[in-house]
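User: My instructor asked us to take a sequence, write out its structure as tokens, and then describe one feature of it. I'm not sure where to start. Here is the sequence I was given:
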Amino acid sequence: MRSAMKWLWTLAVLSLAVMPLACGGDDDAGTDADTDSDTDSDTDSDTDSDTDSDTDSDTDSDTEPAEANVSGTANRDTSTCPPYQDGIGDLCVYLLEECADLSGEVASAIVADANMSDPFNSAVEFTITGVPDGTFQAYAFLDDDNSGCAGGPTEGDFWVAAGSCVEVTVTDQQDVTGVELFFASKCPA
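Assistant: Let's start with the prediction itself. The structure tokens for your sequence are:
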């Protein structure tokens, strides 16, 4: 009988020891739920807000818009007499990468209704705006037959003959003045 009692006692102790394990959801204060609610709230809010967004905006001058102006006069010689039409038309002035090659246009200007009918007094002033830095070839013609500036000079227009362009250099976006273009001939057919 003594061994039966011992056995019961062991069984009772074991059931008390196993009970907390089987009932894990029991809110028994004696069970070490160790939720470790160490609400130390040390969230380290030192989120290093040194985002160093470098608003210095290191934009190179290469991306700045071209604002230089190139200005001067276009004039013609008596060798262009008589005008093909009336000597009045749009003055088409270009800055080109290569002389007389309109496909390499860098900047241009049109002076509408330029009067170059008098070979002794026919200077027409022009200004080309928005010119970037660089070295270019100034080229021009007077559209005497009203065919337009697009496509280049046509038969009879006063023009700066190929090879007679004027070199223009723009540095540090400084304006260039005093460019003189001279028409000594009419565009051949």
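For the description part of your assignment, you could build on this observation: The longest strand covers residues 105-115. Try explaining in your own words what that tells you about the chain.
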